[in-house]
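Researcher: If convenient, please comment on what follows.
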Amino acid sequence: MDLGIGGRKAIVCGASAGLGRATAAALAADGVEVWLAARGAERLADAAAEIAYDSGVKVRTVAADVTTEAGREAVLAACPDPDILINNAGGPPPGDFRSWSREDWIKALDANMLSAIFMIKATVDGMIARKFGRIVNITSHMVKQPVAILGLSNGARAGLTGFVGGLARDVAAHNVTINCVLPGQFDTDRLKSNHQRFADSTKRDLEAVQDGARRSIPAGRFGKPEEFGAMCAFLCSAKSGYITGQNILLDGGQFPGLL
């Protein structure tokens, strides 16, 4: 399917690996000019080279931490007028809420709520003026099915979800859409590290932890990053203008509810 976005410009945050990289690759494959943002310059350069080789599209990089004001300024200086914005930042560590300080909460909010809001603030009016904009926030299936040990992530991502729900409806008439995509368990380095942490804390074998996780998913497997990237690319397409303010769950059927 031609998504109708060839030649558009996209900022993809957290794009050096995992779901961010897969999303950047899917956009580039459809002819989108992408700016990849992440903290690690070397890993970022590797991702850009591979995506450019596979897609034939020019790929630029910005080594920056978008959870900071300076990082966001660097990204926006490189691409001040994106048509597409993918907000993505790794989640805070798990733990017991009794041990979290105010600083822990502020750090989580900066990373998983406020950084996305400030990126939207800096770009949405330009999208409105050009009568085209697609914003996708990569959040987590924990927005719909929270667990206590991920309270920092639950709180920050739920805050972003609430903010987006109102703004999406305010800008929809200008052909600007804002949606959230909620990944479940995808085969990424982050998932492996989370499983390893759980295995270590429970003194279990990593393979046993992973097998148990797979069995909890009706699809019987972890998601492929390219499956996630394809969904994000569709939400950024010219054909998706009637989808906005939604929280789209990609979890292999793990969430047991209807809504």
In short: The radius of gyration is 18 Å. The chain has a mean pLDDT of 96. Helices lie at 18-29, 41-55, 69-78, 102-130, 151-171, 189-202, 206-215, 225-235.
